[in-house]
Design goal:
Elements (H helix, E strand, L loop, with lengths): L2 H29 L9 H9 L1 H12 L2 H12 L6 H24 L11 H31 L4 H15 L19 H23 L5 H16 L4 H21 L11
Length: 266
């Protein structure tokens, strides 16, 4: 079965299953007035995070055995990633928050570094890795494989990024989530969701350029979340980080002429 045919067969199913699973879990928790940071709401919240993995499992189930084996190797094997792409990973994951914090410190707009204990740092890393593992095999793995086989990589990455952003919507009404209280339609709401679309493009570029590694997308996702959570927050930091991601996204699109380092499979 060709990559293009696999895309036509499984792309709609991936999105239907992913959204149905996640929105059922998160919607149920929100409707019941539960909190994402207290049981049983926390269990429903965590279960919902795995929606993209459920969708990816369905795509793998219908694919060829050679594709399944290669797909799983792309998740765990770091040997396939050239050294330069590890550098790019660090820049994408930690660069925006770090640069934002530096500018904020220079202008006196950032608070002092919180006194993080090893436990809180470890918990942040574990939570971020869970999110990366639960989401990226779907968005930058199964969905990206199928969509990039059908259209120009930049349009595929942007479309997936937009749907990834939309997928987060129930969290705005789920108490205890990071998105709760942001205000649907507020300036911050639009900035956060635009940021997700741009990060989707950058993660796709990383995955494509690193030999279709899903692992690098998982680590980029996790690293960005850790940096955003642990680097001292301020309005200045967030604005600089947003501008940095925007400039980087535009630069990558222009530099790669919209191909995002994608190589057509033989």
């Amino acid at each position: 079965m060709s990559r293009g045919k696999r895309g036509r067969l499984h792309l709609p199913a991936y999105f239907v299953l992913t959204f149905a699973w996640t929105w059922l879990m998160w919607g149920s928790a929100a409707a019941a007035g539960l909190s994402a940071d207290e049981p049983p709401g926390a269990l429903l919240y965590l279960s919902g995070v795995f929606g993209p993995l459920v969708g990816a499992a369905w795509v793998l189930r219908g694919g060829e055995s050679t594709y399944r084996r290669a797909f799983l190797q792309r998740i765990w094997d770091p040997r396939r990633v050239p050294a330069m792409w590890w550098v790019a990973l660090v820049a994408v994951a930690g660069g925006p928050a770090a640069l934002g914090a530096i500018v904020a410190a220079m202008t006196g707009a950032t608070p002092s570094l919180p006194d993080y204990g090893l436990g809180s740092i470890g918990a942040a890393i574990v939570v971020a890795l869970i999110a990366g593992v639960a989401e990226e095999p779907g968005w930058r793995g199964a969905a990206s494989d199928a969509w990039q086989a059908r259209t120009r990589p930049v349009w595929a990455a942007t479309g997936i990024g937009a749907l990834w952003s939309l997928w987060h919507l129930p969290l705005h009404v789920l108490e205890g989530s990071w998105y709760h209280g942001m205000g649907i339609g507020s300036v911050r709401f639009w900035l956060v969701h635009l940021l997700l679309v741009m990060l989707g493009v950058l993660y796709t570029w990383l995955a494509n350029g690193s030999g279709n590694s899903i692992l690098i997308a998982i680590l980029a996702h996790a690293g960005f979340n850790v940096a955003a959570g642990l680097v001292p927050s301020s309005t200045t930091r967030d604005v600089v980080a947003f501008i940095t991601v925007t400039v980087a996204t535009v630069f990558i699109i222009v530099a790669t002429k919209g191909r995002l380092a994608f190589e057509t499979p033989e």
